[in-house]
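Reviewers asked in the last cycle whether our approach scales beyond single polypeptides. To address this, we selected a multi-component target totalling 757 residues and predicted its structure end to end. The input consisted of the following lines:
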Amino acid sequence: MDRRTFLKMTGMGGAALAAGGVSLGYPRDGLAAKEDIGEIKSLKVTVLSETSWFNNDVFKKNMMDGGGAMGNQYETAWDKGNSGGYSALLEIEQLDGTKKKLLMDTGWNNDWMDYVFKMHGVDQMIKKKEIDTMVLTHWHLDHFWGIESTLKHNPAITIYAPSTHYPEDLKLLRGGKFEKAGCQNSVPHKGKLIECDASKVVKLMPGVALKMFDVPIILRVRGENVLYFNVKDKGIVTVTGCCHPGILSLYSFARNNFAKGDDVYGSYGGLHITLFETWDPKFDDIIKGLKAFKPEKLACNHCTGWLFAEKAAAAGLPIVKGTDRFKSYKRTSSVAKSSHAFLTNGDSVVF
Amino acid sequence: MTEKTAPSPAGYLKGTAVFLSLAALNISCWYLFFSPKGIMRLYTPMYGFSIIVVLLAAVVTFSVLFDGWPLAKGAGSLPSAGRGAGLTLLSLGLAWFLIFGLFYNFIGRFGVTYFSPAAIVATGETGSEIFNARENASTALVYLFSTFIWLALTWRLGFRAWPWHEERAGALAFSRFVTVSLFSVLAYSVLFHPHVGVLFYPPQKMAAVSPWWETLADTNSAYFHLGWVVCSVAVVILSEALWEEYPWRLIGGEKRQAPFLRGVVTLFGTVVTGFVLFIAMKKGMELYWGRPFVGGQYLDAPYFRYLHAAEMAGFVILGALIVRTYLGNLFAGSVPLVRGIVRTGAALLLGALIMWFYYAAGPALLGTVPGIAQPEDTPLCWSFFMISFILVHRNFFGAYPLRIDP
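The resulting structure, written as structure tokens, was:
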């Protein structure tokens, strides 16, 4: 009797829940054989915007009034003046020297994202189809609701997104408006929407893979796309929007499923740890676990929270510091005093 | 229904109907007060969780420690509905007083800051805004009152009325309450206070030691302790509700001599048995999900595995209380061991069914997010709420319209 059969027979776990259509998450079998995703020469990430909102207290009050962490983001009255957005430009150099650009996420507030895209010339890159693909990491407001800022330059852009969307997400994507939440998109998406599910790894190009992790996330969202890069002579680099599945789970997935996946080089993106400037004993666990993987470059920001970045750096982890570039933006976060703790708006990092 | 008289088929149907009615009432109240899709939306999550845990502690206080005092049966001419309503109101009042009076506005303001959201905010320290503050204060209350519930139930099973068995009901009630409170504070300070001390930045090292269980549990989170504590509560409930207090009743014989020895053995026995159950659940999860690792999150997190053990124990407790209260403990024949095994099997099956219900129907009925290991959701919250309803129904209202001997 194998272990799955045993568990089904007990009736306490998989069988009963599976019968009711409840996902038990992933059994730790992983993929059958380790997958070779190829290699790239280098990856440059430019932080277009990591300030999803400018004042934590206002955001938290909106969230609390809207039903707390499990409330529906489309039924919450968000303070529009507090919204910004998360987006990054990824520039990939292949082993043969060819270069490819990807847009990761499209922010929240269209006015802010128009400003950010223009500042970095991303609007023209989309219009000229230098960027023809956007990877939507997940359906959270601060990563997705600024979709009009992207589609207005190319409604036919190809989008990779988690398959775990709600009807409201597709309504907004196809041109819709949510009065209470204060979001709208007047440019319907006309291109390919490639829905990523948790069952397989999608190879975007040699050395670049996309994996969806089907995890429950706050504000009723589910599932996050994670980008894996295999940089020649360096190792695996993860690029995330918020990293809700957990950075160590991402590293563990690479180790279990990718050829040379043991060789973790680093990460870029939000790590979803101390975004609300509060600590928890389990965050100390993450620092300890990260040290065991010995990453060489941790370029975190956004929902990582400056508290974690500072504590992790103090513990000896290679956190990439930010610069004063964020001051060139017309608006800064209310916690900008600590912006040097990690990469912030306008900064870039090369892996 | 009593454990000595098995119900007829009609009795099972009636018991099931009564339980389903109670569950419908519970889900309605959940929608009104806690559901993220409901009216008041208090399940944020820790704020709502703390209200429920303190409410359960108040219900346990009046039913288990006070034996219904000051409205105990036979104390006057109160009809059962009046007695039930009175004890329910007393429990609600006690919970309200404990949270918003004693902890938020007295202990928190004049003693231990972290018990009061307002006092935390007043410090002006990093992250001390009202949302974090309320969640952190609520976390501390959840831990403290979970400890109280555990020790109150264990005391009642082990020591019963000792050493105040010859005192009047009021003296017995207060003596047990104060004693259990004292031991709860001691246990909380060792098991959970170090976790709460790290909820702030910088960590409160001069007030709380670093979590001492880290190397043992592969996590700094006190969910490790919450896991085995709730498993121990499950063993206590199983012993009392389904096993007719075996094996603990064997100590001191039928005349119940040596109450101190029985109490001590029961305390340690239920802790050891609870820990074995806890480890068994942990191993079961490892069989399916693989081994968790330090720093992992969601299913990979050691702290989630410990919390999930508590969550499954919560469903088992619900199953046990349903078998005892609404299914008349199934049957009365055979030897105690067989009776206990059959009833426990039924409780486990019911627990599994309720767990399925929670994860499958929770998003639609309870407003939760689909999936397991959502950090903002713990089924313990709803299961404790349902347990409160069953205890109120059974202990305060005599399980009306069923006839049981609570």
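Chain B is about 65% helix and 0% strand. We regard this as preliminary and will revisit it once experimental data from Aim 1 are available.
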